């Protein structure tokens, strides 16, 4: 660890270049994750609109609740994307790394709380849809589509968070610490 600090301290241009590349790769992974979630939400919105049009009563209520919820997810992801730190020359490298570290920590909290804000709110709409079906087979098929789609998003995000966030946060911490000296 001490050798890493010395290397970072004496080799700032290389560190800056390496960190910039790592941040770019991280941003690409976040964009891929957001794109995957938005596409999944849009697909479910189309499915749920068709279900709402072709049904009545509880199914329509549940479908419309879920459509509103998935529109909110798309908005939430796009809003989180806009909060990405913008690098500018008026800030020191250390300040920019601190801003980016805070951004990465926010992204990690977003993924860590995925169960609360992504999966649990689906339950009321899914219950309404299930109650509206006369056929158990149709209820299982439509419920499976929603549950499998959301479960896929949940597990791919959890896996990505386990792989991507800790190493980047560690590198950012070492870089920030070396710039404090």
List the defining traits of the structure above.
87% helix; elongated; 181 residues; single chain; mainly alpha
Characterise this structure:
This protein is mainly α. It has one domain (2-82, 92-180). It is 87% helix and 0% strand. The chain has helices at residues 2-10, 12-53, 58-82, 93-112, 114-119, 122-132, 136-180. Helix 2 packs antiparallel against helix 3 and helix 6 runs antiparallel to helix 7 (136-180).
Number of strands: 0
Give the amount of beta strand, in percent.
under 5%
Give the helices and strands as they follow along the chain. HHHHHHH
Count of helical segments? 7
The domain count comes to: 1
Helix/strand class: mainly alpha
Largest sheet: none
């Amino acid at each position: 660890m001490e050798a890493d600090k010395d290397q970072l301290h004496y080799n700032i241009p290389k560190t800056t270049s390496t960190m910039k590349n790592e941040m770019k790769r991280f941003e690409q992974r976040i964009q891929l994750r957001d794109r995957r979630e938005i596409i999944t939400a849009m697909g479910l919105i189309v499915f749920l609109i068709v279900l709402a049009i072709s049904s009545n009563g509880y199914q329509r209520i549940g479908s419309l609740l879920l459509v509103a919820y998935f529109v909110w997810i798309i908005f939430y992801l796009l809003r989180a994307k806009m909060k990405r730190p913008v690098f500018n020359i008026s800030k020191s490298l250390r300040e920019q790394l601190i801003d980016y570290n805070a951004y990465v920590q926010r992204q990690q909290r977003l993924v860590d709380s995925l169960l609360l804000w992504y999966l649990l709110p689906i339950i009321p709409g899914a219950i309404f849809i299930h109650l509206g079906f006369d056929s158990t087979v149709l209820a299982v098929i439509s419920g499976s589509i929603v549950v499998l789609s959301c479960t896929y998003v949940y597990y791919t995000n959890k896996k990505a968070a386990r792989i991507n966030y800790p190493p980047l946060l560690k590198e950012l911490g070492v870089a920030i610490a070396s710039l404090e000296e």
